[in-house]
Amino acid sequence: MMNANIKIAVNNLNFYYGDFHALKNINLTIAKNKVTAFIGPSGCGKSSLLRTFNRMFELYPNQRATGEINLDGENLLTTHTDVALLRAKVGMVFQKPTPFPMSIYDNIAFGIRLFEKLPKAELNDRVEWALTKAALWNEVKDKLRQSGDSLSGGQQQRLCIARAIAVKPDVLLLDEPCSALDPISTMKIEELITELKQDYTLAMVTHNMQQAARCSDYTAFMYLGELVEFGETKQIFNEPKVPRTADYILGKMG
């Protein structure tokens, strides 16, 4: 990848839970307007890595990261980084849908109000835009004042995606976004991921090998806190260079 095509560059990243060394000397690049999937067995560090990209780990005690994570050439791990703005720029969607305990409309408007003072008409337009972008507008446009909790699981996850993109981020982090969803809802989210990369850079953690193969452009295989192999998804799945990668993809290890 040429430098102009790199959104995030990770250099010598190490991450710790207290004294436990969870991520060990990670080096990789995340391509702009592409989907990068992170695969590997439970506990290998996939989600921990994702949480370093917007410093979400700082919400918990005794967690720290060293090294560099350069977003558009700026190291986001430095002390002068505005973390609130960083988390707007690098949005995150979690494994289980997490709608706020408020209306569908306010779920989307909440973040916008934090960062922008928009006239009511513009705010309404932005809410509609975000819900449309997340392929949810036609399903909720007549019930915007209903609670976000009233939606189905798949709709709630798309609501969370709409909430993340409403503040116009550059990057979307998806931490197993379909693991709690039925096959139909999963298909809708996968279709949405493919569409969203036209406007955003996406990094996704998944345990579903088929999903990684279908949705991603690049794949990183992690094991015991180390990056074992990283490359284009077709190469990783069809011609892995490391035997351990092949064993995992073929189900010989977990």
Automatic annotation (TrEMBL):
Question: Known InterPro entries for this protein?
Answer: AAA+_ATPase (IPR003593), ABC_transporter-like_ATP-bd (IPR003439), ABC_transporter-like_CS (IPR017871), P-loop_NTPase (IPR027417), PstB-like (IPR005670)
Q: What class of enzyme is it?
A: translocase
Got a GO cellular component term for this one? plasma membrane
Catalytic activity from the UniProt record: ATP + H2O + proteinSide 1 = ADP + phosphate + proteinSide 2
Indicate whether Cell inner membrane appears among the record's keywords: yes
Q: Give me any GO biological process, just one.
A: phosphate ion transmembrane transport
What are this entry's molecular-function GO terms?
ATP binding; ATP hydrolysis activity; phosphate transmembrane transporter activity
Q: Where in the cell is it found?
A: Cell inner membrane
Location of the ABC transporter domain? 8-249
Task: Give membrane topology per the record.
Answer: Peripheral membrane protein
Q: Does the keyword Nucleotide-binding apply?
A: yes
| Superkingdom of the source species | Bacteria
Give the protein's function.
Answer: Part of the ABC transporter complex PstSACB involved in phosphate import. Responsible for energy coupling to the transport system. Part of the ABC transporter complex LktBD involved in leukotoxin export. Transmembrane domains (TMD) form a pore in the inner membrane and the ATP-binding domain (NBD) is responsible for energy generation.
* Name of the protein in question: Leukotoxin translocation ATP-binding protein LktB
